[in-house]
Specification:
Helix content: 55-70%
CATH topology: Farnesyl Diphosphate Synthase
Order of helices and strands: HHHHEEHHHHHHHHHHH
Shape: globular
Structural class: mainly alpha
Largest sheet: 2 strands, antiparallel
Radius of gyration: 18 Å
Distance between the termini: 22 Å
Strand order of the largest sheet: 1-2
CATH class: Mainly Alpha
Mean pLDDT: 92
Number of helices: 15
Length: 290
């Protein structure tokens, strides 16, 4: 299959929908400008794409799941804005350009993230789907973003541990990175009204895909360059932050990427017999250079 072509087409659809959000002339002025600055800065749009494709694979209509898909990207973008703040990772480069707080100041960057989070829930609840599907999908999104999900993982990551273990690191990443990717897959199935077997398979795929994705990120922080990656490299080592690459070594971390990728693919074998897209995506993410 032509994975790159399908990803490009899906990304174009998502980008077109995002372009219409928080447009110029709305009352929020500079706040909307800050929201759009980060939201339209590029990126893979992986989370919304997963929602749309799992909706299709579960027998649903992807267009009706679009508000859920866009909501995920709003939550993801807000998390990046806050993650870059001086009180968090203190990064001044994201996707090849200055981070939000560098351009708009810390206060407006915080507000832009807050506003994107609120707008995400409003958007998710507007999906043209049966009410019970909308509510369950919105609850899935809120849970993935909250203290038992992404924010909880960020808290654990910020607090740090004096002698971290692989188990502790996996717990952090399953929340910080994995929760939203699992939600992206699950929300697609929920939008389609898929059964519990499909839901469990989608969540398992998302879990292992997220683990492989994060480990690959850790490797690239050591082996890549800012020009290729679009953000600073070497910051984990400089901040003495434990990663899979630092705890295992790059070679063993690469092996773990491949193992998690195979686990992601095997999760779909029964409930999703038409899985070529998801298999190809997992393989491509495992080998990515940026």
């Amino acid at each position: 299959m032509d994975l790159s072509g399908e990803l490009a087409a899906l990304k174009t659809r998502v980008d077109g929908e995002l372009e219409g959000l928080f447009a110029a002339g709305t009352p929020c002025g500079r706040l909307c400008e800050a929201m759009r600055y980060s939201l339209l800065a590029g990126g893979k749009r992986l989370r919304p794409i997963l929602t749309l494709k799992f909706c299709e694979a579960a027998g649903g209509e992807p267009e009706k799941a679009m508000p859920l898909a866009l909501a995920l990207e709003l939550i993801h973008t807000y998390s990046l804005i806050h993650d870059d703040l001086p009180c968090m990772d203190d990064d001044d480069l994201r996707r090849g350009r200055p981070t939000s707080h560098v351009v708009f100041g810390e206060a407006r960057a915080v507000l832009a993230g807050d506003a994107l989070q609120a707008a995400a829930l409003e958007l998710a609840l507007s999906a043209p789907l049966p009410a019970e599907r909308v509510v369950r999908a919105a609850r899935t999104l809120a849970a993935a973003a909250g203290p038992e999900g992404m924010c909880g993982g960020q808290e654990l990551d910020t607090a740090g541990e004096p002698d971290p273990t692989l188990e502790a690191l996996t717990r952090i990443n399953d929340l910080k990175t994995g929760a939203l990717l699992r939600a992206a897959c699950a929300m697609g199935v929920l939008a389609a009204g898929g059964d519990e077997a499909k839901l469990a398979a989608a969540e398992s795929y998302g879990l292992h895909l997220a683990r492989a994705f994060q480990i690959r990120d850790d490797i690239l922080d050591i082996t890549s360059t800012p020009e290729v990656l679009g953000k600073p490299v070497g910051s984990d080592e400089a901040n003495r932050k434990p990663t899979y690459a630092s705890l295992l070594g790059v070679e063993a971390a690469e092996d773990r990427v491949l193992r998690e990728t195979e686990l992601a693919k095997s999760a779909l074998a029964g409930p999703f017999p038409e899985n070529a897209f998801f298999f190809a995506l997992a393989d491509a993410l495992a080998a990515r250079e940026s």
